[in-house]
Amino acid sequence: MLTGKQKRFLRSEAHHLKPIFQVGKTGVNENMIAQISEALEKRELIKVSILQNCLEDKDTVAEELRTGTHSEVVQIIGNNIVLYKESNENKQIKLP
Q1: Helix (H, G, I), strand (E, B) or coil at 85
Q2: Does the pTM of the predicted model rise above 0.90?
Q3: What does DSSP say about strands 80-84 and 45-50: parallel, antiparallel, or unpaired?
Q4: Full set of structural domains in the chain with CATH
Q5: pLDDT at 90 over 80
Q6: Chain mean position to CA 66
Q7: What is the spatial distance between Cα 35 and Cα 3, in angstroms, rounded to a whole number?
Q8: What is the band of 18 on the pLDDT scale with cuts at 50, 70, 90?
Q9: Which DSSP string corresponds to 39-82?
Q10: Alpha-carbon distance 89 to 65, whole Å?
C-alpha cells in the first residue's frame, strides 16, 4: 500500500506523462492486462485513458486494472487512471 506522501509524489511524477493505453468499448481484457503489466515493468508509472465509448465505470476499470496487473491506483483524474507498480529489474522511481 502507498502512503499519502508517496501518492502525492507519484502524482507529481505522472503529471507530464501521456496516456499510453486506451480502454474503449470492449473494456478491459486479458491481452490489455498483459500489455499494461509489461509497460509497468519497464516504466513503473503509466497513465491509461478511458474513452468516451467505454461502457464500464472508470472506478470499475481502475479496479480491474489494479487487480489484473497487481499494481496500485495512484489517482483517477478525469478519464485518466495513473497506475504504479515497482519494477523488479528496472527500478527508476525512488519513493519518499
Answers
A1: coil
A2: yes
A3: antiparallel
A4: 4-84 (3.30.110.60)
A5: no
A6: 7
A7: 27
A8: very high
A9: HHHHHSEEEEEE-TT--S-HHHHHHHHHHHHT-EEEEEETTEEE
A10: 21
Mean pLDDT of 21-45: 94
In residues, how long is the chain?
Answer: 96
- For residue 66, the model assigns a pLDDT of 95
Instruction: Tell me what pLDDT residue 21 has.
Output: 95
In whole angstroms, how far apart are CA 59 and each of 53, 82, 87?
A: 15, 12, 24
Cα dist from 21 to 6, 8, 74, 96, whole Å:
23, 22, 16, 27
Residue 55 reports pLDDT greater than 90: yes
Task: Identify whether the C-beta of residue 83 lies closer than 8 Å to the C-beta of residue 48.
Answer: yes
Mean pLDDT score, 23-36: 93
Q: Residue 31 has which C-alpha cell? A: 491481452
Residues 35/3, Cβ–Cβ less than 8 Å: no
Residue with cell 502525492: 8
